[in-house]
Amino acid sequence: MNTDPTDSSEHDNLAGQSAAPESPVADYRQYYGLSEDPFRDDPEFAFFGGGGRRALLEQLQHLCQFSASLLAVLGKSGVGKSRVALELANSFQFDDDICLLTAEPGAGAEAVLGQMARHFALSVDDNPSVGRLLAALRHFAQIADEEDRLALTIIDDAHHLDEKTLGALISLLQGQDSTGRRLHIVLFADSEMVTRLDQFNMHDVLIHDFDLAPLSLEEATDYLNFRMEMADYMGPELFTEEKVEPWWRRAEGRIPRLHEQARRWLLESVSARASSGRPGERRNALPLVHIVVIAVLLGVLLMVFIYQGDSGAPERESTTRLPESRETQTLTLSPSNEASNRTELESSAESEPAAETVQTPESAAPERALPESPSPEPSVEERPEIPQPDEASEPEETSAPAAGAKTPTEQPPSEEPAVAQASSLPDIPEDEQVLLSWRASEYTLQLLGASSRASVDRYIEAQPNRQQLLSFETLRQGKPWFVVVTGRYSSTESAREAINDLPEDQRKAGPWPRRLGELHGEIRELRGL
User: Fold this and answer.
1) What pLDDT does 489 receive?
2) pTM value?
3) DSSP string covering 35-61
4) Where in the sequence does UniProt note compositional bias of the Basic and acidic residues kind (predicted)?
């Protein structure tokens, strides 16, 4: 056993990374302005919450505190289970007792339980038996419960555990009270682990299994760009779905292989630019500050060139650009200068009659401005009179809200018929019709999820509040999945408070609030609504 959180099964195809020369790595880090290698094997790298990983983490956090169930996160090798396990361990408070282990092939019950006892600083013999270790761990869990501390064990690569070790771990969960504030265990393993766990058939220990799916093409693209951003890359996104698709297909869901492909492309992009002299994929060789300074200098030179080209007509530009300052200048001129200025304006007006109508209202020559001024002035004065027809149309605006006021009252019925239409379809179960009739902004409590309709029906039939339980069908990894829920609540807080009112078996299952809008989407997608 060891406490290294890195999944050993996720290290394949990384040997090429460690063997790569250091200088090309430094080159592409400098070229793209990176503070670190975004695709090196670092379990402490920033956590990517896409691909359902953030939602899974929140569910695990809730169940670790309020459930007495055995939690199992299952998925193919390399999909990122180890990173979720580490993030889960780091997400709790400092004073909680969190033990993160990585199982190794051939590890027996004595080794696993002994590692847990040493991590929790329990006093045991040098070579304690499995029974003594179990007794010490149960006593420790009871003390943690009395001190209101969380005692949690997370085991990565749990598929390496043998049947005896799995049985010993499950026995630690037997006999816990309904509050679930005892020892909690989360296993991260390959998908085949669920079959092994079902073989124990312990009725007093519920098993919650979660499937960690591989990243889709869109999620993989977002993931690679996220890694670049976390390494302080400030440029435009480098990775697109078109570029990532061949890497994604070759990776087959294994994130380390995706890292290798992206890292190799970064090295090749820098090498290609150095050999061909062409600009890289997007990044410029000059620093960003230098580029901005050069752009500003070019802009200044361009403005100087424009002003030099227009220096032959300074008076005309001053009248068109700054009419108010032009008038203030004419007030300070002497009569002789004013006369000469007027003469220049008249001569320019004769040479450019088309521009005369624009300049004469702003010029100081009343002799030529008066004949022209009445034409624009009435048009300016008529515009304030235009609101008079608008004032006449104000009753129409006031009546428009009255007409528009009908639309808000008609919109809710437009949604209700959709629900009524769904409920009128004969192939939709009655429970799903009830759920669809509830508001999407409300919440309910999920109690159970199973792959068998018969198992769900037996569970509901055995519950004392079976009249208050509802079930619906959805898809999980393309296969039917049946979920049991109860209650209708306005917020997550009221839903969590209602957990204390549930029967003991349901409280032990660790229910958690779910937004009805999410359930509506799953039901409609399955039913084709």
Assistant:
1) 94
2) 0.57
3) SS-TTS--TTSPPP-TTTHHHHHHHHH
4) 313-327
